[in-house]
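Holo prediction. Input below; ligand is uridine-5'-diphosphate.
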Amino acid sequence: MPTILASNPAAATCRRRVLVVGAGFAGAVYARTLADHGYDVDVIDRRPHLAGNAYDEQTATGVRVHRYGPHLFHTSMEHVVRWVRRFGEFVPYEHRVAALLPPSPDERARFAPLPINRTTVSLVFNVPLPTETDMAHFLAAQAVPCDAPRNAAEHLYSRIGATLTDLFFRPYTQKMWALDLEDMDAAVVNRIPLRLDTEDRYFPADTFQLMPRHGFTALFANILDHDRITVSLDTAFAHALARGYDHCFNSMAIDEYYNEDYGPLPYRSIRFHHREEAGSYALGQTSVVNFTDARAYTRQTDWSRLPGHAAAGPRKTITLEQPCDYRDNAMERYYPVKTSDGRNDATYRRYAARAAHEPAMTFIGRCGMYQYLDMHQVINQSLKGALDWVKAAA
Ligand code: UDP
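Structure of the complex:
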């Protein structure tokens, strides 16, 4: 276990002493890399636990639940896998998602694979599509051509047409982001690939699709288990505290650090509704089901379908996700809001330019850099950032 202090560490003045704000992936990767290179590292986190939004825990009935929604590790970056495997065993898990469609005329629930593939399109339009060429021709007939899509709506219309866009993306995006597709950056929906074949994995392009055998929290405990690292939970960042260090790597929200001087950087947050169901309960065949309709929830996770998460017994835990503004959820920042006009990124750049004048402060991670990134991207970026900093400081 890492050394966990009950309160702020005394900030000793020492040449090789750094503060890391946040014990999520960005902070943990920085902390470990710097400690491995001989720095003394104090990690603080305002939450009472390690692992940031990847935090998982066991419920009273023994089910492993990710408190902040499902975190699924996937990447094609071998060095990232090599690095995380230093700290724990991983087991294979290929994620699949089904979208729950509006009921058919006979009122039976219908599920379609997501990302949209040939099976999905065949099911929605009730047409046979035996080959990829058939699928390509069918989509071409649906598509609304557009040379240079300016937003998520134009991007989707030009690839899959209005029917599929309005079924799979429009209501979901509205409740997830409180934005019309026309106001959203295409990069957000472009996270979901389009398949001409029948491939139904959520991350088909990634070579490694894995979960930590003993959970993310245990993985973080190992990452931070180092003689040169101390961890203080329940500890908020304070400017005075940071002054005692040679450098601070800060994963807090950059607009919060600067008291929102240039205006707030908006985030979407999620309310997680964890509830118990009878062991026989099932919604579809997949661990995650997305709701295409206008109900408040975007998706549901059945934890029993993830490796190592289920518990023996007559009940299982499921989690429903209800998006909301972060100001309505105790300022819990989950998703930076990427609009088609780039206005929030423009605000972020003002903060980043100001931060460039603070040589002893580096903003890191999703909230420090206002980026919508997956875990493997944060790990990769943080490994590189930490090593570059060590080299420059040598
Ligand atoms: N999306 C959608 N319908 C879906 C799934 C995703 O409209 O059934 C859109 C939505 O805007 C979402 C984005 O695609 O925010 C990215 O989805 P992803 O599953 O990658 O989101 P995450 O897992 O990061 O919450």
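Residues 99, 114, 168-169, 172-173, 176, 188-189, 191-192, 290 surround uridine-5'-diphosphate (CB under 6 Å). That is the main takeaway for now.
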